[in-house]
Amino acid sequence: MAKWSDIDPAEMQPESLMMTYGFRPEWSEGAASPPIFQTSTFVFPSAAVGAHCFEIAYGLAEPLPDEHPDLIYSRLNNPGMEMAEDRLALWDRADTAALFSSGMAAITTTLWSHLRPGDVVAASSPIYGGTHHFIETVLPQYGIGCIRFDVHDDAEVIADRIAATGLRLGMVYVETPANPTNDLIDLQMCAGLAARFSSPERKVPLAVDNTFLGPLFQHPLEHGADIVVYSATKYLGGHGDLIAGAALGSHAMIDPIRAMRTFVGNMTNPFTAWLLMRSLATLGLRMERQAENARKVADFLRDHPKVKSVNYLGHLAAGNSQFDLFQRQCLGAGGMISFEIAGGRPEAFRFLDALRLFKLAVSLGSVDSLAEHPASMTHCEAGPEANAAKGITEGLVRLSIGVEHPNDLIADIRRALEAV
Ligand SMILES: *Cc1c(COP(=O)(O)O)cnc(C)c1O
């Protein structure tokens, strides 16, 4: 009898595979739904098998083509973690994925694994505060420099900035759309830049933080990226109840990251891996609904007299170079909006304090709608002047749209704006 476990994943879309792929009920007493493999270690069937597992783990032997080496210890591998990784990889059509204890664990381990002293990272701006701090403050202590570029800089300007450091380019690191302005960075341009500084001995990877749109509405690996990283805390987890991260790409790119993870010990745990796997089954449903809701909320905000401007990808108009980029590299506008309230910080705070359904909280991508004030919260480290130059003004509010009824979300915003 044909079994779901025999399905070739290339035959189907990820939505159809999230409940089955990579799991065989016969491994778990016939359970239709995978159990949580809450174990630290695994029993070897014989000493010889145990020795062979270690040879493979330490790269002293290659696994045979159809061989699935036995599991050793949950810092290296765990069945639930591997299943969640295999399923996540399908969404981005990546060869492989590695799960981490947080998005920052995935990002920092990716940087550590591919950079060496004497390298410079070219990173887009603005980026996530934790990543910004790590690149600007921590990496320089290890002899790794950084240069920054934004949506207005072309490849020549960036190449000149890299050359001026006198260091070797080690990685191009990009967040697109940018948080919280939704500026789009040209991935093809970045891939060209990375290729220009690559040599036969060393490929300069392009890494993309795909947390905002992925993996439903943007597939960076199809636009020249080598590594995709996620804060799985956000849309992938999607319920505001876990912290996790992921790095995806080819084996050549991800294997060193996974090896570093083994020694740093920042893998995800069995329960979180199980929660993530469960979340992946509804990823498409959630993100589609969040995107539909976001469109309605963004349209409402655009027409409101107390709103100065709205940053929403679905409002980009033809003739704008950002619109061309959106058409080329995005598949949807997603669920993130920021908008500027007429006035400044007092008006933004009054609005935030008057919300009832939206929660006043950082983070994003959850089933519940969240609102925050980037200038004083997620982006406060840069300071008011640098922030204003990036469009992160005192009146700017960021919304992460959830799966509530859109009319209730709009009513909540309308009422809170009346309080301003
Ligand atoms: C939240 C976030 C991160 C950090 O992820 P954690 O899971 O909180 O460690 C990185 N990048 C982006 C774009 C994020 O939104």
CATH T-level fold name of the largest domain: Aspartate Aminotransferase, domain 2
Task: Please give the radius of gyration in angstroms.
Answer: 22 Å
CATH C-level label of the largest domain: Alpha Beta
Global shape: globular
CATH architecture of the largest domain: 3-Layer(aba) Sandwich
Number of domains: 2
**Helix content class:** 25-40%
Number of strand elements: 12
Work out the strand percent.
5-15%
Helix-strand pattern: HHHEHEHEHEHEEEHHHEHEHEEHEH
Largest sheet: 7 strands, mixed
Oligomer: single chain
Number of helices, where a helix is a run of at least 4 consecutive DSSP H or I residues: 14
CATH superfamily of the largest domain: Type I PLP-dependent aspartate aminotransferase-like (Major domain)
Low-confidence stretches: none
Tell me which ligands are bound.
Answer: pyridoxal-5'-phosphate
What is the average of the pLDDT values?
A: 95
Adjacency order of strands in the biggest sheet? 1-7-6-5-4-2-3
- Supply the helix-strand structural class: alpha/beta
